[in-house]
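notes to self, project folder thing:

trying the whole complex as one job this time. last attempt i did each chain seperately and stitching them together was a nightmare. two parts in total, labels are on each line so i dont mix them up again. if this works i'll redo the older ones the same way
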Amino acid sequence: MARTEVARSEMSQAIENTAPVAATRPGGALARSLIGGLVTSLPVLVVGLLILNFAPTYHTFLALGAFVNLIVVVGLQVFMGNSNIANLGHSAFVGLGAYGVAILSTPLAMKKLSIPNAPFGFATLELDPVSSALLALLAVGILALISGKVISRLSGVAATIVSLALLIIVHSVFLNWTDLFKGNQAFFGIPKVVGLPWMMVMSVVVIVLARLFKDSRWGMQLRASAQSPQAAAALGIDARRLRLMSWVLSALICGLAGVLYAYFAGTISPKLFYFQMIFMTLAMLILGGMATVTGAVTGVIVLSVGLEFIRSIESGVTIAGIQLPQLLGLSGVALGVVIVLCMAFRPSGISGRYELDELLSRFFRHAK
Amino acid sequence: MDYALQQLLNALAFGAEYSLVALGLAVVFSIMGLVNFAHGEIIGVSAYSVFLAAALGLTSPIVAVLLAIAAAALAAIAFERVAFRPVRYAPTTTGLLTAFGVSIVVQNLFMLLISPKPQSVSILNGLNQMWFFGPFAVSSLQVMELIVSGLTILALVLFLNRSTLGLAIRAASRDFATVRLMGIRANRVIATAFAVSGALAGIAAVFIMARRGSVSPDLGFSLVLKAFVACVIGGFGSLPGAAVGGMLLGFIEVGLLVVLPQEYGGFKDALTYVIIVALLVYRPEGLLGQRVELGDKEI
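result (full assembly):
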């Protein structure tokens, strides 16, 4: 028992976390990170409620997309932020979640049109949305466990490349297994059962979950081993197991995002879950700062608004009577520039090392 | 027999191309630990400059080849100067993400400034003919690809082993600090490494254009993903590993094309990656990589 305490204090030194660390009671730390997670999700709730009450339908639709991105980015943060290994394959899990519920919950009449030859009796199967979601998440979990077994064994760079290979494998299966996934065509007719309120609830749950993981002993040990593998190994930390754990959790959160996306959009296609999504969510996480859950939230809010603005220019606008031409690729350039500039000038992103609640408590302590 | 020979040549030619690109990645990675995702866009810049030159009236294929290689080398140096120098001493993940960002920017610039659609380039089509050796018909492009890649790798080996700068590059991949203490400029070593890597990409670009007859914004991206995989199989950062990994990848791909029935042809990429991931389960450090524990001293 005493040894773990020493290990803990060593580690918290190792990660130079100067935020208030006073975990005297075992329950205190848990409660603090729970509250911290809720504080972090507060801006999301405020934005969501404003949109829910005041925004026109079109903006609600945009907001739903942004919430899906938020959940993906938070999921990405769980792995990247704690293990410090770049993951370029997470949208494979988003896609798997979305296709999972699409195959399980689409009404039979629709299935006759879209996937009449589906194998394993999926063509004649129709489950309710909740159990389809759970089964889809189970599938995501299994794939994550298998891929995680490989990835957690590799060194940083090789792990990144394998995550990319995973993305390509999954995408190519979506495209080519036409009997089950409908190939390149859109998969339509998924029941639209998720609206903004559910999306907000899930976002908050996911944010709190990510924060709890980050502050848990596993999260802390993983962050320590990312900073100094040798020191962490010397303290008896099994980095592989922790990487696997965060990989699976991250995949499940991304899978949940996919499930929610399918349930609000009703139509999905493979290209939604390919590099475009990787670029965007990665830029969001980097801009916000990948070390913290707050960073993930910040990045999504800032870039969602920014990108919508750029997209309006991209499609050709009229400024002072002059019609600008279509500028395809502008949003891509912007995303790339955001990543490059962030990496060069502020690698820790907007929010840096501190969570929102830690920043607030520091601020108030100084103000006193 | 004819079929088997043809497939062997196919595998060798694909493998040679992957090796070229993978070597370019490995040269840069071995020195500064940068996982250069923008390598594909170096191929892209090279291809688009040939496309632009052809549009402006260039007709000589030889000039086009030289232009492709020069443009690629210059692009590589420019990327290093603009984007990678600020993150030179940053952790690997930072460099990787920067390179990823550069790749996105350049790809989208092609889209924005030229066109999102593939553009036809016919100037190098002359390289792609059928040659007849007695009863065998072979594609001239594949033969050239094999020979040129072989010669290029030979030249690279000679350069790295015989010239001072090459020696500095090899030394820098072991211990950069000591190389600098010997009075060799860091910037120069790194710029040379990028130029070499760019030239390799330029040669690959020539073959790609000759085969496809067109350029598109994502021209190099998927190729570089494969080259990365080749590097990982061979052991990241190891030059022989990159060459071997590229060849192996070529053989796996062509082997799958031969073995898979026609209707499952689409699964080629997926299966290729599955095989490679399975390989990595048994040798996480790659085929030619050494198992290095942190803190090991190099002897």
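what i see at first glance: The mean pLDDT of chain A is 82.
need to look closer tmrw
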